[in-house]
Amino acid sequence: MKVGLAGVRIAALTAALPEQRLALTELAGEFGAQEVKRIIHSTGIETVRIAGSLTTGALCEAAARHLLACSGKAAADIDAVVVVTQTPDDLMPGVAVQLQQRLGLSEHCVAFDINYGCSGYIYGLYQAAMLIRAGGCRQVLLCTGDVTSTLLDPADRQVRMVFGDAASATLLEAGEGGIDLLIRSQGGREHLYTPWRSPPPEGGSRQAGYLHMNGTAIMNFALNGVPPAIEELLLHCGLTLEDVPILALHQANGFMLNYLRKLLGVERAKVPINMREVGNTGPSSIPLLLASLPAADWPQREHVVLCGFGVGLSLGAARVDLSSTHFYEPVEVPQVAA
């Protein structure tokens, strides 16, 4: 699917991170110092953020409040709130409708969740932009958030030393500008999933299981899918990679991003990496990256390309104009007292 949506702009964005940190070196006693050193070297991740007592809703609320306070936007003017998460606070109601109440948004506000992971920010942008294009909304608050640490098997080094917790908030509004999107789906789920069945299979448990990831399969999917998807999107937009100042890719791991950069044939500065102190934060990784980049690193922002890939398996890419977007540094969220 490829589509161009005019009359929509990204007005502002920010992110929220738990204050609690886990340095991977602290896991040397469990996995061995050499293994930890190998993971750090291959992924580029040294520390991950841990939500602890914080929920997805708490992190999304912190990001949203930070965005509203910094931008001066009134909560009452928000027409819709969309939350992308795979770790909701409750099975029902969704995080979005709880945020509507906590943030003091209008009772006329549309509020719903989208169950998506690493490509979820692109799906969220698509849904938020469609709400605006449909004519019923002028300002849409898009939040992403996951507390993936709650799904990790303590004995699974592949995921425990990679995934971190975070949330983001993005404000989209009607106005000059536009978003071009490309989305691909390749179902099958077996390479990245968290089992849950209701009703549970015979003899099975109703408890949510641990996250399972086939890292090699995900890597192959990304390396084979991301470069042609970006090239197809740019062709659709009448652009080339030379027109793109920044490729904001899902922050999966450093090895994968460097490999993708080489396949795309672009210089290192065009593919920024910021996972060293936060880890792989799923659908929040792209907005977290954008909110963390020093402005001097990318003065030209008209044709920024975003690309998320992973769970599904799925892939989403977008060409966005961020020349008038306000970026606010991520806020850190303390633990909730017991």
UniProtKB/TrEMBL annotation:
Source organism, top-level taxon: Bacteria
Any Pfam family the entry gives: ACP_syn_III
Matches recorded under InterPro entries: ACP_syn_III_C (IPR013747), ACP_syn_III_N (IPR013751), Thiolase-like (IPR016039)
Ribonucleoprotein found in the keyword field: no
Transmembrane helix is among the record's keywords: no
Residues annotated as domain Beta-ketoacyl-[acyl-carrier-protein] synthase III N-terminal: 112-178
Domain Beta-ketoacyl-[acyl-carrier-protein] synthase III C-terminal positions: 237-320
GO biological process assignments: fatty acid biosynthetic process; secondary metabolite biosynthetic process
Keywords in alphabetical order: Acyltransferase, Transferase
The protein's name in its UniProt record: Ketoacyl-ACP synthase III
Lineage: Bacteria, Pseudomonadati, Pseudomonadota, Gammaproteobacteria, Pseudomonadales
